[in-house]
Amino acid sequence: MKNGGGFAVADSFGIxxxxxxxxxxxxxxxxxxxxxxxxxxxxxxRLERGEKTSPSLPVVFSLAESLEIPYSVxxxxxxxxxxxxxxxxxxDVLIQSNFFxxxxxxxxxxxxxxxxxxxxxxxxxxxxxxxxxxLYMLSEMLDEFKAAI
Length: 149
Hints:
Elements: E1 2-3, E2 6-7, H1 12-24, H2 30-37, H3 41-49, H4 57-67, H5 71-78, H6 90-96, E3 100-101, E4 104-105, H7 108-123, H8 131-148
Antiparallel strand pairs: 1-2, 3-4
Helix pairs in contact: 1-3, 1-7, 2-3, 6-7, 7-8
């Protein structure tokens, strides 16, 4: 829906941008994304936090191109549609869905941490050489999650 020259975006839009910036693009900084997209880092930060909810189409396309997100994925998030070409990943489901714990909706911060925990579990090596370190890292993320809910 139109909103002051841009489009009103779903809460998951910022989470998706942050997910691609941090996970897919290997911890790309806000400043680096600014240089790639020509969108100010403060504006990107406000989009990620959900404070800005009406980016223009040129901003959306620039971010999508810079993060190598298919336009269709980003646009689907904009309009909260759930069309997909196949089964969604767990990260996609976490990004595009709202969840409740104890009858309270998870905040954006808590959802972001939950996505980070999921990706960590999928990506960790979990062998005898790494298990202790990875268990500690997981416990730190769980502490962050508990603090966010």
